[in-house]
From TrEMBL:
Protein name, entry field: CDP-glycerol glycerophosphotransferase family protein
Cell compartment(s), UniProt: Cell membrane
Superkingdom of the source species: Bacteria
Region Disordered, annotated ranges: 731-758
Signal peptide residues on this chain, from the entry's feature table: none
SUPFAM superfamilies in alphabetical order: Nucleotide-diphospho-sugar transferases (SSF53448), UDP-Glycosyltransferase/glycogen phosphorylase (SSF53756)
Membrane topology designation: Peripheral membrane protein
Pfam families: Glycos_transf_2 (PF00535), Glyphos_transf (PF04464)
């Protein structure tokens, strides 16, 4: 289909997008709309006073695309009233509703426009959708056969009443705006707000058409974001919604033929709420049933015939208000389900026997409110964000005793710092502290056998800003996943109470790829606090300990691992690089911590070509010592950017890396905010970057500033304080991140050397 021209007065479509707490999914939603090849539309995005940064994301899109208008509501009003706010602004010929965690499929708007043309501009066009799941599976609507396009191009509901069997939702339909305005349709407050709108519009419409094509992907949130998975008395709102449906029928006698249909939909809906576990509080189920029974009796149409089978039996129980009988029926069903699962339970019970009985006993003891357990990098030495939090907690929350989980070999080698209380992994005391500690802090996940108790607080600090794909995104990259069980991964993430982030990009990624119910803690990375607190003397002392001679320009080379390779494979001829850069430069080489010590690096160090710092325990010290960073795709670049020193990316295998691992943005785009400085794809380009001075010229400085603004968003030297005050002290207020222009970063080791006369 050819592109259409945007009509500045009356666009073909007005797309209303209500937004609340969806920052992890919102960009995908908006991109799916703005990337449509049919361009004659406007987007009315309604920020329903979202407490996260969804509103700011919408403003970004509005600034880039004039078709986007953003309404910021002063208070949270709920989905229905947010849609009403959007309706007040629409100008389009047709109105579409799109929930902000769902997406349009490519070509959807063009297909809708074409079908509207061929069906004579009906008042309602119904199209199909597919459910999408966290594991990337897609399942089309099971009632897709109701959308058969054979027959008359448009019809009334009386001609095809089976349309009522479709899910009562608004976002799988295009509504002609003059039809909405003629009848004054609006959304009510409360849960199940789609029901009155859907039923009242369908029974009123004089012309309906269908499109047998999936135009929308309906995201099935694994946790959160869906009222149907929320235990609440708000589910009683369903009674108010059907009061509205029948009030509409009372006001329109000409529609009385639809009473039996609406009665059936009402009772089916009530029974669904009753049948689905977890919707109603246990002490409210009987009350809900009696309310449903009352509606049954007072709205029962004359001559109504109950459905056959089990459903008909439930109708009969409602008619008699026989709650005990329904409860017995549900218990019988539960017993049947239990029998079916019995074989699987035997396997799980066998595994449970392996759990230490002492641990089970410890799990029944009271929590120690003043005990915190720390771990970093799969129980290596104290490091990273957990270590920075541990140190700050000793200052601000000294009543909380910290214990580190470490491997036995670290104890045997005497590497544990003096004065650090620690437990050996899987030792008796390990299971004791894991069972009783109030706080659990880690930059990876604790083992599957660790039980998250009610009352425990789990802080996941992570250990880097994600350039590479993480979480459920790895499912698309087998080389990265390596047989990973994503269900187990998400079960571990289900234990998180807080997920720490240093920038908005990271927050959005974590919320999307770990679809769990944690709270994003946008505080900055505590490990980066040192970059704003170290003095010039601190920097010189670190360089002296590392063996960097005075006056030398130290270049830290820190590549990441490759999922598609086994073991450490050097990507640079380090001896050549060192020789070509000359005596004024020194290379500090650090391999990824996944790799064992490399004998080739030791040989180069013995010859004086490099300094091998792979075993240095504190990477932040290496960054402070370095005048420049050479890396590839390692997250060290995001941390190093805090220092406002040159970054050079050596990206000789970018295409392979992207195909094997996947990335969250285009590092090589050259756009401000994406690329931190100079890019090199060959050794000669890397050498020339230093020889020519491009590594630290005006262009590199500009790129570095934009990169720093994007990814060092909340790092200002006070991240650890914010975390400790929020998690350990329960304080809602904490020091707000300083504006970047007010931050004082650690000084560079020395003035940049003059450009050599090569």
């Amino acid at each position: 289909m050819s592109e259409t021209v945007l009509d500045p007065v009356v666009p073909r479509f007005s797309i209303i997008v209500p937004v609340f707490r969806v920052q992890g999914f919102l960009r995908e939603c908006m991109d799916s709309v703005l990337a449509q090849d049919f361009t004659d539309f406007e987007v009315i995005a309604v920020d329903d006073c979202s407490p996260d940064r969804s509103g700011a994301i919408l403003d970004e899109y509005a600034a880039r695309d004039e078709r986007v208008e953003v309404l910021h509501l002063p208070e949270n009003v709920g989905l229905g009233l947010a849609r009403n706010a959007g309706l007040e602004k629409v100008r389009g010929e047709y109105v579409l509703f799109l929930d902000s965690d769902d997406t349009l499929v490519p070509g959807a708007l063009g297909a809708l426009a074409e079908r509207l043309d061929t069906t004579g501009s009906p008042e309602i066009l119904i199209f199909d959708y597919a459910r999408t799941y966290w594991d990337s599976s897609v399942r089309r609507n099971l009632l897709a056969d109701r959308l058969d396009e054979a027959g008359a191009p448009s019809f009334t509901l009386a001609e095809r009443p089976e349309i009522l069997d479709l899910l009562q939702i608004v976002w799988n339909k295009a509504y002609r705006r003059d039809f909405i305005e003629e009848h004054g349709f609006t959304f009510p407050v409360g849960y199940y707000e789609d029901a009155p709108w859907t039923f009242c519009t369908l029974i009123t419409a004089r012309s309906i058409a269908v499109l047998d094509r999936v135009c929308l992907h309906y995201r099935q949130r694994r946790q959160g974001g869906n009222i149907l998975r929320t235990t609440s008395r708000k589910h009683f709102d369903v009674f108010d919604q059907y009061d509205r449906v029948f009030a509409y029928l009372d006001a329109h006698p000409e529609l009385s033929r639809w009473r039996p249909h609406m009665f059936r939909k009402m009772i089916d809906h009530y029974l669904t709420v009753l049948d689905k576990p977890g919707r109603l509080p246990q002490n409210a189920t009987a009350e809900f049933f009696h309310r449903a029974a009352r509606d049954y009796r007072r709205r029962l149409p004359a001559g109504f015939v109950r459905p056959a089978g089990v459903a008909g039996g439930k109708y009969a129980l409602l008619a008699k208000d026989a709650y005990p009988a329904l409860a017995g029926l549900k218990v019988a069903g539960k017993v049947q389900r239990t029998v079916r699962k019995h074989a699987g339970k035997k396997v799980r019970q066998a595994k449970k026997k392996a759990m230490d009985l002492r641990y089970q006993a410890l799990l029944r003891q009271p929590l120690d409110e003043n005990l915190a357990v720390y771990s970093a990098y799969w129980n290596r030495l104290p490091a990273c964000n957990p270590l920075a939090i541990y140190e700050k907690a000793k200052e601000l929350a000294p009543h909380v005793h910290g214990v580190w989980v470490v491997k036995q070999q670290l104890v045997d080698s005497g590497e544990i710092p003096a004065g650090v209380d620690h437990v050996v992994l899987n030792s008796p005391r390990y299971w004791e502290v894991m069972a009783r500690a109030k706080y659990l802090v880690n930059n990876v996940n604790f083992a599957d056998g660790v039980v998250k108790r009610e009352g425990q607080v789990h802080l996941q600090t992570h250990h880097g800003t994600p350039l590479k794909s993480m979480g459920v995104d790895q499912k698309r990259y087998p080389a990265a996943a390596k047989g990973m069980s994503f269900r187990k991964l998400l079960a571990r993430a289900d234990r998180w109470d807080y997920s720490l982030s240093s920038n908005q990009h990271t927050t959005e990624q974590w919320e999307r790829v770990y679809p769990c119910n944690f709270e994003s803690l946008d505080a900055g990375y505590p490990r980066n606090d040192v970059y704003y607190r170290a003095s010039a003397q601190d920097v010189l002392d670190i360089r002296e300990r590392l063996g960097v001679a005075p006056g030398k320009t130290a270049v830290l080379y820190a590549p990441t691992m490759r999922d598609y390779q086994v073991g450490y494979v050097p990507r640079l001829d380090l001896e050549k690089i060192s020789r070509e850069l000359g005596e004024d430069f020194v290379l500090l080489v650090r391999t990824h911590y996944f790799y064992d010590q490399d004998t080739r690096l030791q040989e180069l160090q013995e010859r004086g070509a490099i300094i091998d710092v792979s075993g240095h325990p504190v990477v932040e010290e290496l960054c402070l010592a370095a005048d420049a960073l050479v890396t590839d795709y390692s997250s060290i670049m995001f941390d190093y950017a805090n220092l406002d020193r040159p970054i050079i990316n050596y990206t000789d295998d970018w295409d392979t890396y992207v195909r094997s691992r996947g990335v969250t943005f285009d590092l090589l785009s050259g756009k401000p905010g994406d690329t931190p400085g100079v890019l090199a794809t060959t050794e000669d380009e890397l050498i020339d970057a230093f020889r020519s001075g491009r590594w630290d010229d005006e262009r590199a400085t500009e790129l570095r500033a934009a990169f720093r603004a994007r990814f060092c968003q909340w790092d200002d030297g006070h991240a650890a304080e914010r975390v400790v005050r929020r998690v350990f002290l329960g304080q809602e207020t904490a020091p707000e991140p300083l504006p970047q222009e007010e931050r004082t970063v650690a000084p560079a080791p020395a003035p940049r050397p003059p450009r050599p006369a090569w």
